[in-house]
User: Fold this.
Amino acid sequence: MTSDVLETKTPEAVRWSALPERGTLPSLRLLAWIATRIGRWAGRLLLYPITSYFVITACAARRTSYEYLKQIRGYPAHWWNVFRHFHCFAATILDRLYLLRGEFQRFDLELHGKEVLHDRMESGKGCILLGSHLGSFEVLRALGVMQGNFPLKVLMDPTHNQNITGFLDALNPVIASTVIAPDRVDTLLTVKENLDAGFFVGTLGDRISSDGKTTQCQFLGRPAAFPVGPIVLAAMTHCPVILFFGLYRGGNRYEIYFEHFADAITLDRDRRAEEIQLWMQRYAGRLEHYARIAPYNWFNFYPFWNQAPPP
Assistant:
């Protein structure tokens, strides 16, 4: 491994954050009113014209969906595959309305590997929960905070997609208060204090943060840039790491998977870049595993890979 393991910020590294927000507050309020006053069935019915609109108008996201689906399937996707991809994403956004309201009885939630989480809870010490934009992070977040299953804080940038973030935060200020803003001078101190107090700190490992520091990993057969931040954070806090994936399985079904990832991450000063790359490649491998289980759960609608696909 050489200097290409760690990179400075590039246009590719921040391309997802530059995408404009498409949802408007009036449309969100209307959907929420229909979904909560009339019923989930009415909200889900509305998802079909909403999905059609975005499939037609969101050109960049549509191209990215075609690219991703071709990559994971091994052969070209059709427009109905892209529609299903968009619809799956829309369904999880709709379900966030109910999850934030604590209406868990609407859903069939199946937990896998929960003993990994329980063992850590019984120790009374915190750990890092490393997730992704595969599936729904909100199902785990709401489950932990609203039902008191485990104390949870979340590293999250509240400035991206401000319309939908602000709207959903207003539905449940308790969950909104669990956010730790990244890239502040006291972020590391805040994370360390919460870990010492026995909190789980959730972060996502498949989008590059504003510092632009990345490492190159193979994902679905092609090189892609992954952030180094989660591994550096785990190394600096000297705490265990647990992987989680909240997969939407259609209808009202969700499956939440927990996996032990590391008891502790220690980075050798002389091989720091190489060891970060090895840890993130291991994460990318598990992300690929779950992406193949639920391929339509991939919600990174921006150019993810570093180079053109092979012919």
About this structure: Strands lie at 108-112, 127-131, 152-155, 179-180, 200-204, 214-219, 222-227, 241-248, 253-262. The first helix runs from residue 25 to 38. The CA atoms of residues 215 and 277 lie 6 Å apart.
